[in-house]
Amino acid sequence: MQNKTKRVNSIISLIACTFFVLTCSSEQPKKLKNETFVKIMSEVMTIESLNTSDSVKVAMIYKALEKENISVEKLEKNIKSSGSDPEYWYNIYTGIKEQLKEKSKTEKDK
């Protein structure tokens, strides 16, 4: 139950950040591939659910972005450029949900 609450809080945080970024910038950058964006956001949500300090989480998120060769700015611009397209966000959140479910299944099998 507590794990679900953390995931819901992470999703709410992601949505809030998305809308914040949408209101702050007006450029139309090249979008990340959906599978790359889903992979990154799944990793971010997994990191957010860890029971560790915020500074450690931030460092882990930066490392995950670096691993994919993506800057925070590029990620933010990708979120902004996606705007309020409900179909796009449905596909992204469905992909994130599937990846988190697969990751959870893999961890249970260990």
Sequence of secondary-structure elements: HHHHH
Radius of gyration: 14 Å
What is the arithmetic mean of pLDDT?
82
Q: How many beta strands in the DSSP annotation?
A: 0
- Shape designation: globular
- How would a crystallographer describe the biggest sheet? none
Given as residue ranges, the uncertain stretches (5+ residues, pLDDT < 50) are none
Number of helices: 5
What share of the residues lie within helices? over 70%
- How many domain units? 1
Strand fraction: under 5%
The CA-CA distance between the termini, in Å, is: 21 Å
Classification by helices and strands: mainly alpha
Q: Can you offer a commentary on this structure?
A:
- The chain is an all-alpha fold.
- It has one domain (2-109).
- Helices cover 78% and strands 0% of the residues.
- The protein is built from 5 helices and no strands.
- The chain is globular and about 40 Å long.
- It starts with a helix and ends with a helix.
In short:
This protein has helices at 2-24, 34-48, 54-67, 72-81, 86-109. It is mostly helical. It has one domain (2-109).
